Amino acid sequence: MASPPDTSKTLKLERYNSYLRRLHSTKVINASSKYLFRAALLIALVVILFFTLNYPPFSGNNPNHAHLHHRNFLSASLFTSTAGGAAWEKQVRHSSTPKNPNGLSVLVTGAAGFVGSHCSIALRKRGDGVLGLDNFNSYYDPSLKRARQNLLLKNQVFIVEGDLNDAPLLTKLFDIVPFTHILHLAAQAGVRYAMQNPQSYVSSNIAGFVNLLEVAKTANPQPAIVWASSSSVYGLNSKVPFSESDRTDQPASLYAATKKAGEEIAHTYNHIYGLSLTGLRFFTVYGPWGRPDMAYFFFTKDILQGKPIDVYQTQDKKQVARDFTYIDDVVKGCLGALDTAEKSTGSGGKKKGPAQLRVYNLGNTSPVPVARLVSILEGLLSTKAKKHVIKMPRNGDVPYTHANVTLAFRDFGIQTFHRFSYWVEKIC
Ligand SMILES: O=C(O)[C@H]1O[C@H](OP(=O)(O)OP(=O)(O)OC[C@H]2O[C@@H](n3ccc(=O)[nH]c3=O)[C@H](O)[C@@H]2O)[C@H](O)[C@@H](O)[C@H]1O
């Protein structure tokens, strides 16, 4: 991922920027993977701080506040061309065409999102064709999505502005491009927001997914599909670490229930139509260009602004913990899933034989208490947080997550994931 925009607005940012510059100038970054990782994490922090300081107030509990402050700092005309016109079709074709003769041609839904933008760039960099699709909704400030879109354009990835539920648009894209794969990352995210806007989860995560599968099943050739499920499907499962074979019938949020429904829907389309489907259960992904509705992001903003933060505890006053997973590891998992996906077996809406159906955890395997996350942020920001330790409200959160990633490591040839504790020890 390219470096974020200029962030030198505060002394703290200058400190990190100058540290980064020192790292670059002394070529320490290239010296070892240790320093590479450290630099990436510092960049992550700088980006978090940049958006914290430059974006409108964002409440983790009120994501819709973002659109009230919507500010497009980049002209929309930069990014749009009339859908269906000759120039538009040319951009669609160009973006989807692999540079590598053996490359994939991937439709990435949610390409202006956090994981979508990272995966799109990684695919394009290795020579695959990538076409993005995103509806740029205002769940969080769309100007962050526009900034990611700008970055993707620089990497020759074009994003079609449209919704998953727009069947004619999706059909048209498949008429223009014989996509070999879909990386389906578009979704209504956020666990707690599901209590405020339940319908948005049904519309994106269920109706939108079905619409995409309907188009994919009739496409010729049918693409193989890799899509984002969630660690939240484990819900109230208390067996740790969470393994793919564990029960997932106790969702604690509507978000989790829609992702679980997605896994069942995937089974149906695989069974009836021969679509190759791989679901990836992401565990609390963090990193540069991350989502402002996530705790690490709004904790940072509130600590810097001297505002109190709610730090959740379980009902019996134990620590709440998450298996925070670094974005590069999730990208590795997504590309591994795409590369190992077998072809769909159907054509013209008819199954011709059994097709691949898979589910994998993509998590760090070392849960970190939220209280520890806060103390790390305090150290990095040199600022004491005003902690308000409270019992976790019954709003969809689960007490802890912990992934068993044996299957993903085995099938995707992954050797290791970045340890959260590693960068903490190095930076603090
Ligand atoms: O793995 C997933 O599938 C999900 O991961 C992410 O959800 P979560 O793991 O809940 O991340 P995030 O909100 O950052 O809260 C982090 C921690 O802070 C705690 N938390 C939160 C808010 C608060 O005010 N106080 C607090 O202690 C909170 O209890 C939690 O322990 C994605 O947002 C979601 O879209 C989905 O992808």
Offer a concise description of the structure.
The protein has a 7-stranded parallel beta sheet with strand order 3-2-1-4-5-6-11, with helices on both faces. Strands 7-10 form a two-stranded parallel sheet. Strands 8-13 form a two-stranded parallel sheet. The protein has 14 helices and 13 strands.
Explain how this protein is built.
The structure is a single chain. This protein is of the alpha/beta class. It has one domain (55-291, 328-366, 404-427): Rossmann fold, CATH 3.40.50. It is built from 14 helices and 13 strands. It has helices at 11-25, 33-54, 65-68, 86-96, 114-125, 142-154, 167-176, 198-218, 254-273, 295-304, 327-340, 370-381, 406-412, 420-427, and strands spanning 105-109, 129-134, 158-161, 181-184, 224-230, 277-282, 285-286, 308-313, 321-322, 325-326, 357-362, 368-369, 386-391. Helix 2 packs across helix 10, helix 5 runs parallel beside helix 6 (142-154) and helix 7 runs parallel beside helix 8 (198-218). Bound molecules: the ligand O=C(O)[C@H]1O[C@H](OP(=O)(O)OP(=O)(O)OC[C@H]2O[C@@H](n3ccc(=O)[nH]c3=O)[C@H](O)[C@@H]2O)[C@H](O)[C@@H](O)[C@H]1O. Ligand UGB binds at residues 60, 189-191, 230-232, 282-284, 294-295, 310-312, 320, 322, 370, 392, 397.
- Describe the strand arrangement of the main beta sheet, using strand numbers: 3-2-1-4-5-6-11
Largest sheet: 7 strands, parallel
Q: How many distinct folded domains?
A: 1
CATH architecture: 3-Layer(aba) Sandwich
Bound molecules: the ligand O=C(O)[C@H]1O[C@H](OP(=O)(O)OP(=O)(O)OC[C@H]2O[C@@H](n3ccc(=O)[nH]c3=O)[C@H](O)[C@@H]2O)[C@H](O)[C@@H](O)[C@H]1O
The geometry reads as globular
Strand tally:
13
Q: Would you tell me the structural class of the helices and strands?
A: alpha/beta
| Unreliably modeled segments | 2-43, 49-80
